[in-house]
Structure formats: structure tokens, C-alpha cells
Design brief:
This is DnaD domain-containing protein. The protein is mostly helical. It is 58% helix and 6% strand.
Length: 400
């Protein structure tokens, strides 16, 4: 809005609010200016924005920021016909409803801290708790006319089912790195990108850290990354295509262990930390595998070198390398761009950069050197199908 704009109100006579609720529950989240603006608007009939600015002694940027906070907390809706603005003020949640809303209560907890939050919760705790449920909480009527009992399954105001999200996390042995912060950001992502709990979980599972914790930053990168055109597989040699297939199938630590064990080595603690850091930086597992292969086979290193890995990973992140195919093409580009006048740093980075198919064939994990048709037995296929069916049952059970 601009200072000269006119504000009118909708359904203002239906508003019911308590200054105490605003101060205790909303102020820590939206701030004093937003609370003051809400209170001022409840006493106004029709007003210019400039009058509001003068009365509250705030600028137009702060005014619009306060409006955004009020709308985000469902205290206000803004409409416009391009000539004027219509505001629909909404009543704050009552204390019990506020604390019962998992998103709002966690948001308040993150602002005031655990000790203050417990005092607020004690303040609103009723002497007697009503245990009765509404008919709609217990029964549902389907189109055949029968009444069925249902279990309570709460979702937030935007329809995101955190309970189901957490249940499937436990089933897949995933956890939060920082639950209080991560839950709020999960809600934020679900709201911003319109995800249901299962679609968001699939991304969270795909981008999880090596220590099986949710990686919020990696989720954001996965959601917002542009759709790139992957190189045609026909442009790769048979050995390169085999490496791409392996890179997409195998977890980085398993791939690393397989390569090192062929030479009598083992994965060190430092190498596990390198892989964990790459995961936290949202480097795709298949890209990590190509980087591992490039480090150990193409440059003939006995172990992952932290500085070398960081240098290559940084280059690939800058150049949006997000798949095994693109990683191999990036390696090939090192060869094409190499000149005799490269700096020492670039020479170190680009040494041995051509893709050696003989090395590739010899150094993929030994258990993957058999032909594809012989890789999986009938017994293995039955076991995999059993696991798939069990996974489907788990998912259906969580969503019920």
C-alpha cells in the first residue's frame, strides 16, 4: 500500500478479541508494531494509510511489513479493487486453541523459550478439562448413508499432516537435526510450495543427511532447482553407462567401501565425515559417487582427499552439476578446456581428467561387473517384491 491509499473494513462488527491474548501469544511472534496496528485498525471505520502512519509513528515499509505479519498469522485478510483496499479483521485464537495448534505453539516456543512457554501454558490451563467430542470428531457419514466411527487425525490449518509425516519418518529411521527449528521450516515449505505430507517426505527422504537426519536446506535446493536436460546416454561409452547406472543405485559410503576393499583398504572416519559434509551441502548421492570414482580411480588417490574433494564439489555446485551424467560431462570438459598454460592449481584439479574406460571397468564394485540379467536371482526378486509390498502397507497405514 501507499500513504495516499484508502482503507475500508469488512464484517468488522463480528470481531472479538482480547488485548491479553494479543500480548501473551501473538506479540512475541509478530512484534509490537504489528500488534499496535491491529489494535488501531479495530477502532477505525475508514482511514487513509497516511493517518495510520502518523498515529503509530511508523513508515510505509514497516506498515506493509506489519500487514504481512498479520495476514500470515490469520489476523487479517487484504482485498483490493485497485481503487481502494478492503481489510477483513479476524479474531485471534483463544488461548486453548492457540496452544492446541501445533504450528502456532511451536512458533511461540521458538520465540519465547521453553521456560516462558511453560508459564504461558500454565496460565491458560483450565481447572477442569472438557473431554467431550463433537459428533463430527467421532463419526463420518459416507454416501451410502452409513455412519462410521473414525479416529481423530488432526491437520493444521493448511492441511499439512505433521503426525503422518513424523510416523513415516520413524518407520524409515529418520530424525530431525533440530526438531524445534526443523518442524517450523517443514510447515513453511508445505505452505509455500503446497505439498502434502507424503510428497514432502519423499523429498526429505531423498535429501536426508548421511546420519539419517532431515536436511532442510537440501530439501529447499531440491524443490527449487531448475529442471536440467540430462545428456543422452547414447553419448556415453558402455563403461560410462555402467558407471552411471551404479552411481544411481548405490549409496556413496557403500560405493566407496566397495572400491577401497578391492585394494585391501577400508573407509576411514575422515572419509565418512567428507561424505556427510557433501550430503549437508546437498550434493546428490549419484554425483558423490562420480566424485568418489574420479578421486580414487581417475586421479589414482588411495583415499579421499578433503581439499581435493571440496575443490571439485565446489566447482560442480557452481556449474549446477546435479546428476551422474552431468558430472561425467563436467570431467570431460576438463580435458577439452585444458591448455599448456593452465595455472598450477588448475593443473592439479584437471590432472588425469580423461575418462579411462579400462580403469572404469576394472574399478567398479566387483559385485556389479556381472551382466545386468545375472545381477538379481529369482529369490532376490521375490524378496524385493515382499519389501515393496510391506512399504506400501506402511505408507497406507500412515495415511489412514
Amino acid at each position: 500500500m501507499r500513504p495516499a491509499d484508502q482503507i475500508n473494513f469488512i464484517n468488522k462488527n463480528r470481531l472479538a478479541w482480547s488485548a491479553d491474548v494479543l500480548m501473551r501469544f501473538y506479540l512475541p511472534i509478530i512484534g509490537r508494531d504489528a500488534v499496535a496496528l491491529y489494535q488501531y485498525l479495530t477502532t477505525s471505520d475508514s482511514v487513509r494509510v497516511s493517518d495510520v502512519l502518523n498515529h503509530l509513528n511508523i513508515g510505509i515499509i514497516d506498515f506493509n511489513d506489519c500487514l504481512d505479519k498479520l495476514t500470515a498469522m490469520n489476523l487479517l485478510d487484504v482485498y483490493t479493487d485497485r481503487k481502494s483496499y478492503q481489510l477483513e479483521l479476524k479474531s485471534p485464537k483463544n488461548p486453548n486453541d492457540f496452544l492446541a495448534d501445533e504450528f502456532y505453539s511451536r512458533l511461540l516456543l521458538s520465540r519465547v523459550g521453553e521456560q516462558a512457554f511453560e508459564k504461558i501454558a500454565e496460565y491458560v490451563q483450565p481447572f477442569e478439562t472438557k473431554l467431550s467430542k463433537k459428533f463430527s470428531d467421532v463419526f463420518k457419514i459416507n454416501f451410502s448413508g452409513t455412519v462410521e466411527s473414525i479416529a481423530e487425525n488432526k491437520t493444521d490449518k493448511n492441511g499439512f499432516d505433521l503426525t503422518s509425516f513424523q510416523n513415516i519418518m520413524r518407520q524409515r529411521h529418520l530424525g530431525f537435526a533440530n526438531k524445534e527449528v526443523d518442524v517450523l521450516r517443514i510447515y513453511e515449505l508445505a505452505d509455500k510450495y503446497n505439498f502434502d505430507w507424503y510428497d514432502l517426505f519423499k523429498i526429505a527422504e531423498k535429501t536426508a543427511n548421511a546420519n539419517s537426519t532431515i536436511n532442510i536446506d537440501a530439501i529447499i535446493l531440491e524443490i527449487t532447482k531448475p529442471d536440467e536436460e540430462k545428456p543422452d546416454l547414447s553419448t556415453f561409452s558402455p563403461d560410462e553407462r555402467q558407471l552411471i547406472m551404479i552411481a544411481k543405485e548405490v549409496e556413496p559410503e557403500v560405493f566407496l567401501n566397495s572400491l577401497k576393499s578391492q585394494e585391501g583398504g577400508f573407509v576411514t572416519k575422515q572419509e565418512r565425515e567428507i561424505l556427510l559434509r557433501l550430503t549437508r551441502l546437498a550434493v546428490e548421492p549419484e554425483v558423490q559417487n562420480i566424485l568418489i570414482h574420479y578421486s580414487l580411480i581417475q586421479t589414482a588417490q588411495s583415499s579421499l582427499n578433503e581439499k581435493f574433494v571440496d575443490r571439485v564439489a565446489n566447482d560442480w555446485k557452481r556449474n549446477n552439476v546435479s546428476s551422474a551424467e552431468l558430472a561425467l560431462k563436467r570431467i570431460e570438459s576438463f580435458k577439452e578446456n585444458q591448455t599448456s598454460n593452465n595455472s598450477k592449481t588448475n593443473n592439479n584439479y584437471k590432472q588425469n581428467n580423461s575418462f579411462d574406460s579400462t580403469k572404469s571397468s576394472a574399478k567398479v564394485p566387483e559385485w556389479h561387473n556381472e551382466t545386468t540379467k545375472n545381477m538379481t536371482t529369482d529369490q532376490d526378486l521375490l524378496a524385493l517384491e515382499k519389501l515393496r509390498q510391506e512399504a506400501l502397507k506402511d505408507i497406507q497405514g500412515v495415511g489412514d
